[in-house]
C-alpha cells in the first residue's frame, strides 16, 4: 500500500514599508514573524524580500521592478505561493497573480487559514467563518477574473458581474446569520458569566506563543492544549486556581471567593481590526476580569515590541485600565540574567517565572492574591437562626473567619472587600 504525502507548498515572503507611513513595519522582525506564521500554516519558506519606498505602487503595492525580480525567482525555483506582510486589495491580488503566475496571499489571509485549522468549538468556528466572509466580500471581483481569461471580450462582463452580485447577497445573508448565532452565544455566555460573580476572575493575556497555555496548566494542574506554534489557542479555557497553604500545601477552602483563571487567544503585530472585532465575544472574558496577567516571553529579543502590541490591543478592547500584572515567562531560557534586575526597576510588581519548569509560580499566586484582596476588611454579619443555606453560600463568596450559633441568630465574622460586601448585603437576609 503506497501512502502519498501531501507536498508542502514552497513559499516566498514579501514585506513592503513606506518610509513615511509604515514606521511600525520592521523588515527583519516582520519577516521573521511572517515566516513563523507561514510555517504554522504548513508552508516551506524558501526566500524573503523586503522593499522600502516613499510611495505605493497602486498596481502591485511594491514596484514593478521588484515584481519582475520575484516573478523570475518564482519561475526558476518551483514556488507555488507568495505571501505579503501587507494587507492587499483585490486589484493588487489580480495584478500580482497575473505577473507572478502563482497563488498570492496576504497576512490576514494567512492568519485566517491558521484560525480555521485551530478552531475547535462551535463559537470559534463561527467567529472564523465570519472573519473570512468579511475579508472575502470586498475582494469578490478577484474571484471572477477567470471569465475574461477563458473567454474574453463581449459577453463575459454581464454574467460575471451578475454572479458577483449574487455572491455578495449570499455572503451578506450568511454574515447576518452568523452574527445572529454569535449574539445568541454571547447572551448564553453572559448568563454563565453572571453565575461567576461570586468568583474572582483572572485572565492571561499576551502575544501569541509566549506560553500562556503552559502557564495555566502549571498553575491549575490541568491539560489545556499546548503546542509551540502561533495561535494554538483560539478558544477561551477557564480553570479554578486553588490557593494552597504554604506550610501544609493543602487547598485553603475558606479563601474569600474562588479564583477562576482563563487562557485567551494571543495577539500579534498588525492584527487586522476585523479579526479583533470577530473575536470580541471570546475576548469579553478579558474585559470582565478583575486582573489581567500580561504574559511576556522575556527570552524573545523583541519582547518590548510585543508588550506594546498587547497594550495597544487591550486599549482597543477598552481593557487597558484594568489591574495588570506583568508576568515575564521563560526566565530559564534567558542568557543575560542581569536583564531581570533591570526589568524589576522598570516594571515594579512584575513576576519572573518559568511555566515550563514550574519556577517561581508561588510568587505569582501571591501577587494575584495581594491584588485581589488589597482592600479586604473584616465584617460581622448576622443571619437568622437556622438559615444554614445562607451560611453555606457565605463560605463560597467570602472567607469565613468565625461562626457563633446564638439563640436567635448566627453570628459570622467574614473577610471580604467592600465591593463584595455591598453585593452580599443585597443578596442575603441579614439581621442588623
Q: What labels describe this entry?
A:
13 strands, alpha/beta, single chain, 4-stranded parallel sheet, Rossmann fold, 432 residues, 16 helices, 4 domains, 20% strand, 6-stranded mixed sheet, 44% helix
What's the short version?
This protein is an alpha/beta fold.
Would you kindly provide a written description of the structure presented here, covering whatever features stand out?
This protein is of the alpha/beta class and 432 residues long. It folds into 4 domains: 10-115, Rossmann fold; 119-190; 196-372, P-loop containing nucleotide triphosphate hydrolases (Rossmann fold, 3-Layer(aba) Sandwich), CATH 3.40.50; 376-427. Helix 1 packs parallel to helix 4 and helix 5 packs antiparallel against helix 8. The chain is built from 16 helices and 13 strands. The protein has helices at 27-40, 64-76, 90-100, 107-118, 122-136, 140-143, 145-150, 157-194, 212-220, 273-278, 280-287, 303-316, 338-346, 361-372, 388-397, 418-427; strands spanning 10-18, 44-53, 81-84, 103-106, 199-206, 237-241, 258-263, 291-297, 323-329, 351-352, 376-384, 399-405, 409-417. The longest helix has 38 residues, at 157-194. Strand 9 (323-329), helix 13 and strand 10 form a beta-alpha-beta unit. It has a 6-stranded mixed sheet with strand order 6-7-5-8-9-10, sandwiched between helices. A 4-stranded parallel sheet has the order 2-1-3-4, sandwiched between helices. The termini are far apart. 44% of the residues lie in helices and 20% in strands.
Amino acid at each position: 500500500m503506497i501512502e502519498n504525502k501531501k507536498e508542502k507548498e514552497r513559499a516566498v515572503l514579501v514585506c513592503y514599508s513606506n518610509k513615511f507611513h509604515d514606521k511600525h513595519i520592521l523588515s527583519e522582525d516582520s519577516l521573521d514573524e511572517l515566516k513563523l506564521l507561514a510555517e504554522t500554516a504548513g508552508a516551506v519558506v524558501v526566500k524573503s524580500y523586503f522593499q522600502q519606498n516613499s510611495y505605493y505602487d497602486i498596481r502591485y503595492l511594491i514596484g514593478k521592478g521588484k515584481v519582475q525580480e520575484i516573478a523570475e525567482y518564482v519561475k526558476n525555483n518551483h514556488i507555488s505561493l507568495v505571501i505579503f506582510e501587507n494587507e492587499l486589495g483585490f486589484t493588487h491580488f489580480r495584478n500580482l497573480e497575473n505577473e507572478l503566475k502563482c497563488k498570492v496571499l496576504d497576512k490576514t489571509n494567512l492568519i485566517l487559514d491558521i484560525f480555521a485549522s485551530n478552531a475547535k468549538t462551535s463559537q470559534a468556528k463561527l467567529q472564523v467563518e465570519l472573519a473570512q466572509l468579511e475579508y472575502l466580500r470586498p475582494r469578490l471581483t478577484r474571484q471572477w477574473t477567470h471569465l475574461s481569461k477563458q473567454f474574453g471580450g463581449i459577453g463575459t462582463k454581464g454574467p460575471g458581474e451578475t454572479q458577483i452580485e449574487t455572491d455578495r447577497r449570499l455572503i451578506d445573508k450568511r454574515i447576518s446569520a452568523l452574527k445572529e448565532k454569535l449574539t445568541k452565544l454571547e447572551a448564553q455566555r453572559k448568563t454563565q458569566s453572571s453565575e461567576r460573580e461570586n468568583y474572582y476572575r483572572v485572565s492571561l493575556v499576551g502575544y501569541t506563543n509566549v506560553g500562556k497555555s503552559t502557564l495555566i496548566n502549571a498553575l491549575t494542574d490541568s491539560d489545556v492544549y499546548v503546542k509551540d506554534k502561533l495561535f494554538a489557542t483560539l478558544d477561551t479555557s477557564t480553570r479554578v486556581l486553588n490557593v494552597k497553604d504554604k506550610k501544609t500545601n493543602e487547598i485553603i477552602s475558606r479563601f474569600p471567593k474562588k479564583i477562576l483563571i482563563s487562557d485567551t487567544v494571543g495577539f500579534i503585530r498588525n492584527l487586522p481590526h476585523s479579526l479583533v472585532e470577530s473575536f470580541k465575544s471570546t475576548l469579553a472574558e478579558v474585559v470582565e476580569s478583575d486582573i489581567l496577567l500580561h504574559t511576556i516571553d522575556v527570552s524573545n529579543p523583541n519582547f518590548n515590541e510585543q508588550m506594546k502590541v498587547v497594550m495597544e490591543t487591550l486599549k482597543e478592547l477598552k481593557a487597558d485600565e484594568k489591574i495588570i500584572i506583568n508576568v515575564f515567562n521563560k526566565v530559564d531560557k534567558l542568557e543575560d540574567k542581569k536583564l531581570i534586575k533591570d526589568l524589576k526597576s522598570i516594571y515594579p510588581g512584575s513576576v519572573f517565572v518559568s511555566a515550563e519548569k514550574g519556577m517561581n509560580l508561588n510568587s505569582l499566586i501571591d501577587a494575584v492574591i495581594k491584588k485581589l484582596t488589597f482592600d479586604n476588611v473584616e465584617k460581622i454579619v448576622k443571619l437568622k437562626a437556622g438559615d444554614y443555606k445562607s451560611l453555606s453560600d457565605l463560605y463560597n463568596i467570602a472567607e469565613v473567619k468565625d461562626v457563633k450559633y446564638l439563640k436567635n441568630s448566627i453570628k459570622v465574622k467574614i473577610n471580604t472587600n467592600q465591593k463584595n460586601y455591598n453585593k452580599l448585603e443585597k443578596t442575603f437576609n441579614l439581621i442588623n
